[in-house]
Amino acid sequence: MGYLSTCNAESAIAVCDPYNCGFHRRKKPHKTKNNGEIREFAYADLVSATSGFSSGKFLGKGSHGSVYRAVLDNGKLIAAVKKTKMNCNIPADNEIEILSRVYHPRLVNLIGYSSDTLCENQFIVVEYMPNGSLYDLLHSASYKSPGWHMRVRFALQVAKAVRALHSSNPPVIHRDIKSSNVLIDQNWNARLGDFGLALRGHVEDVRFNCTPPAGTLGYLDPAYLEPADVSTKSDVFSYGILLLEIISGRRAIDMNHSPSSVVDWAVPLIGAGDFAAICDVRVGSPKDKEVVRSLMALAARCVRSDAGERPGIARW
Ligand SMILES: Nc1ncnc2c1ncn2[C@@H]1O[C@H](COP(=O)(O)OP(=O)(O)OP(=O)(O)O)[C@@H](O)[C@H]1O
Hints:
The protein is α+β, with helices and mostly antiparallel strands. It has 2 domains: 119 residues, Phosphorylase Kinase, domain 1 (2-Layer Sandwich), CATH 3.30.200.20; 182 residues, Transferase(Phosphotransferase), domain 1, CATH 1.10.510. It has 9 helices and 10 strands. A 6-stranded mixed beta sheet has the order 1-5-6-4-3-2, sandwiched between helices. A two-stranded antiparallel ribbon has the order 7-10. Helix 5 packs antiparallel against helix 7. It is globular. It binds adenosine-5'-triphosphate (ATP). Adenosine-5'-triphosphate binds next to strand 2, strand 4 and strand 6.
């Protein structure tokens, strides 16, 4: 019991060769926790659902591939299809394996997968998020900057997503929590997506011990330098950065400011009790100052350099 429940957020506001390329040799798909079967799509169906992966259906490009909007099941299902090159260095199989075991309403959940006839590309079919990313909402001029109510709600929804991952058995460490991986669904709820770097297991597992540190600059835990350093507390650090970003409207790293790192700028201000200096000026003063203040205090604890001093999200 802790912050997430007492705040009642919704209303207040393979081992060393882990990606063994077994895409076409995959084990029987799991059922999701909501009991939906993970579907294996025919490649031809995905081609037709995305109008041949046309530019009109293109949603965006990430570091591992392109994402397309797909209309499936005679128009009854709108999904997003992530297309990546079949490559042992790309963890798509890992992403499917993990997503197939962690269904949660605050995640961008897996619907199915496919590969093309020559096994050159692999496809992950996930829930479609029509309202962009949290990064877009916070930083892009083409979106109206969200108000405090919405920001607090997003912050708590992402915390619930992370809590679901860390408290699953075995735990899942996302390793890439950042605002561009938080997508906004049709009801304007935040969902955590992109499990390309995620690890599922216990920290002492062999797979963990031979997976090099990874993540995104600005969100990456400075205490995560070696494979053996990985823990759920690295996600807690990234979540702390995300909180500071949500409250201040500043990017994790912004060269137009000095200091450029949101953590180096915000933590001393929080320490000095100067909460007002951190609040995003675009949204004015929060009505419920106490909630925003508690989130800032929580952010400061999450980004402590000593991982052992950070709170465990599974207990919030
Ligand atoms: N489920 C989805 N629904 C709608 N749009 C999506 C969905 N998933 C991804 N996108 C969009 O597709 C683009 C690429 O997403 P992707 O997850 O591949 O990369 P990224 O997270 O932006 O970058 P990186 O891979 O470097 O972390 C982004 O603009 C994202 O907003």
